[in-house]
Amino acid sequence: MKLFTRIPFAIALVAASLAGASTSAQVVATAEGQQALLASSDPKLAANKKLVYDMYRHIVQGGHADLVERFFTPEYIQHNPNVASGRDALAAFLRGSRPVRPIAPIITLPIVNIIAEGDYVLVMSERPMKDEEGKPYVTSWFDFYRIENGLIAEHWDPALKSAQMLKFDPNEMGKD
Description:
Elements: H1 3-19, H2 31-38, H3 43-61, H4 68-71, E1 72-78, H5 87-97, E2 111-117, E3 120-130, E4 136-148, E5 151-156
């Protein structure tokens, strides 16, 4: 299946997951709730979700650039226009955008869902933002990963090219 047919499929997965809920999607902030997001009757899908989940804890939240080899292929492809492709480039971005923090037992960012299909994992989250007048609001964010041989090989998100994104630390969202 070509990539261009897989991306709409992932969007359809998101829509289906939200459409099936009787209430609006909520942030999953407990250890039990997050473990439930990792569950799958397919061991490969469960392993792919766990890989991405642990990467969030160690890399995205923890800022442990020294651990990128544990989670990413050397040829890692990055579709965010603010970050160069390659595992080493990702490590450099991490070092310049966030401090090293203790590794938390759960994802502390506002995760709504983690969905896996084939070699792909989609993470849905909330993103606190401020409008031009400084008024806070919450929007949706999606990170889409392709897994290859047990490592993250590719990443997509809706980020726009911006100098602010070069120093963006998602752990600081909504704190000012």
